[in-house]
Amino acid sequence: MEINLGTSDEVYGQAKALELAGRWKQTFRVLQGADAPTPAQAFASAKARTLADIARLPSPTVGPFDDAPPDDQRGIYYDLALQKVLDRLGYASATEIKPGDLTAAEEAELAGTKAAVEGSSATPSDYRKPLSELAAAFLADRQRPGSDRQLKGQTVGQYEATYRLYRDHTGDAPLAKSDRRSVREFFDKLKKLHAFWGRSPETKTRTLDQLLAISAEIEGPRLSDKTLFRYMTTLGQLWDWARDGGEVSGDSPFKRQVRKGKQESDQNDPWTKEALLTLLQGRPDESEPGNPDPFYWIPRICLLSGMRPDEVCSLEAVDLRTAEGIRYFDITAAKTSAGVRVVPVHSALMPFLRVTPKSGYLFPHLTPGGPDQKRWWNIGKVIGRRIRKIEGATTFYGLRKNVIEAFERNRMLDTEIAQLVGHGKKGITYRVYSPNGLRIDQKRDLIERMVWIGSRP
Length: 457
Known about the structure:
Elements: H1 10-31, H2 39-56, H3 75-89, H4 104-118, H5 131-142, H6 153-170, H7 180-190, H8 208-216, H9 225-244, H10 273-281, H11 294-305, H12 309-313, E1 320-323, E2 326-331, E3 341-344, H13 350-353, H14 376-387, H15 396-409, H16 414-421, H17 428-433, H18 440-447
């Protein structure tokens, strides 16, 4: 295809030819099915293309009798980009352009071209990465191989849900466009959401406006301050990461938008003695050789070891070991590095050892579930429903508080309790100067202090 450039000026002709080539290249890409560029992409593309074109211009020379160098010819590229817009609008000059005449892509291309011509290295906030792209990059960085800050699958899902809601609120605008007023408006919307808005399998396909409309028609609790605070923290982490990368600047507009909120006083409180007795004496042991009854044994193991339920469900036959004549659980699938530990088997759990399989998981028939495919996920839901029927019970996690409370009432030291339940040691004395901690026989003696009525078969 040949086009008459309508000029005999070599520099102007070269600039116009390059500008036309870039324009047609983008047009062909769209015709071939490529997505139209976003404003951010249009800005970056126009700036890069113009900088490359400017680099091809012949260097201006100054003659020995010239008083000043020749005019800077870089402005040609902005003039050409502007003329393209004027031609489409049928205007004779830029003074005729009214608000709304230019498309978002045209505004971005003009801004990118102008930035290149003026030698500006800064990217206006309007043309930085959209929120969705920035959030995806942030999560990819957190989850990269070798990162010591990787998130669990369930937590990743919570982060993604928060970013989707904020994306809908902003129209996927760059994060740099966020200010305290727009963030406050966002949280005012969230306060109207039903507390269980995220439980539907269709949640990911619904917009924030749709979720608000559905919530308005349903009675029930709204999002708690605790949940709103978690959303605020999640967005604040994105801001801090983006600021370190130069995408945003200044203090986070998400700070202090929501108060932390109080933990419900009875949500995870220790169980009453009567509730514990009901749990431990409420059903018979239905274990078979090689197949321990999880409903019977998981609560007992947790109460007599201080282990978390998912740690118990993740135990395999190879994790049952012996040292110095003492049987113990070798816990490696732990929530934290402090959770990797050795816990002696309480004497009341010896009948459990007699029905465990010789290989594989100690509870072989548990079905993994949830974002992290945890073995506790599905059976935990069943046990949770049963727990709600017990008067004086709180949550399964509350049993862990019963354990720590019992250790404390046996006058055990903080560092002793921490080594049994998988918490980090407090203070430099124990953490640094006693890295190996208690001997296994000492741990056994501490574990044996645990006595629950009804815990023995």
